[in-house]
User: Which sequence fits this backbone?
């Protein structure tokens, strides 16, 4: 007897094949969904502003008119940082070989050459020495205490010039967050005024949240400006303190040399006077 040509599988086998096909489709669906979700998460993590459709220009425009004030302060802060970098360098405050050159001129009493050298150099130490030498030339009988007072006054003036520049950074660091907070308050006021004037149910609530987010942009902008400004202020403050301490040591050394020169001249003058007096007495005795 020949077997039947109808080779259809039994119902159990068909059911198993159907379940296998459905399971495979479910696995493929979950794999595709996971891939899409991971791709979206990667894009959001890599560029959060792009995921919201906001770039730097969009954030600046959405921040309102106070963002222009923050932009102006940021330009001023950048210029102040550049100026502080230039004026607080070593050659601008205390050049390396300047102390030795000044000491050599004082020992030779070459005050004219010393003043010319200080005018050409233009550093803080050179300007202080210029004032001291000018005082010595105009007051040859002045004592070391008067010279120290002149040096102290001029050193305080040079210190004030250096520290006055970095105070701009401190002021910008304090003003920028306040401007950002003002922008946030203004944005919140506008949002609540719109709430009082209209209905914020449903989709309107999303618009209110959008307005609050825009109001917070100015606060973020103020903090982004204030944090680097305060960091630069702390850096330049410590740098200026080190420069001033080094200059004080150098000025003290030069004043010690001047004091030694004055004592030597005073001893020589007393010896000369005693010698002249003795000669007069000898002539009278004769």
Assistant:
């Amino acid at each position: 007897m020949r077997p039947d040509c109808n080779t259809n599988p039994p119902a159990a086998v068909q059911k198993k094949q159907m379940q296998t096909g459905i399971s495979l489709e479910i696995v493929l669906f979950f794999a595709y969904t996971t891939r899409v979700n991971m791709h979206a998460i990667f894009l959001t993590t890599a560029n959060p502003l792009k995921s919201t459709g906001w770039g730097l220009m969009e954030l600046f425009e959405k921040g309102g008119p106070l963002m222009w004030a923050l932009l102006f302060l940021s330009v001023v802060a950048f210029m102040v940082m550049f100026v502080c970098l230039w004026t607080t360098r070593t050659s601008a405050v205390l050049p390396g070989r300047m102390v030795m050159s000044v000491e050599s001129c004082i020992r030779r009493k070459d005050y004219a050459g010393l003043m010319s050298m200080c005018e050409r150099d233009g550093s803080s130490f050179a300007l202080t020495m210029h004032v001291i030498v000018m005082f010595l030339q105009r007051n040859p009988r002045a004592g070391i205490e008067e010279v120290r007072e002149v040096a102290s006054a001029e050193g305080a003036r040079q210190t004030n010039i250096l520290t006055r520049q970095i105070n701009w950074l401190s002021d910008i660091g304090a003003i920028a967050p306040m401007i950002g907070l003002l922008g946030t308050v203004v944005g919140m006021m506008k949002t609540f005024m719109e709430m009082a004037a209209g209905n914020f149910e449903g989709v309107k609530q999303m618009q209110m949240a959008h307005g609050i987010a825009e109001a917070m942009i100015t606060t973020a902008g103020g903090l982004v400006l204030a944090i680097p400004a305060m960091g630069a202020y702390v850096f330049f403050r410590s740098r200026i303190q080190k420069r001033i301490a080094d200059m004080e040591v150098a000025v003290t050394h030069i004043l010690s040399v001047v004091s030694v020169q004055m004592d030597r001249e005073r001893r020589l003058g007393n010896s000369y006077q005693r010698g002249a007096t003795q000669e007069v007495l000898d002539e009278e005795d004769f």
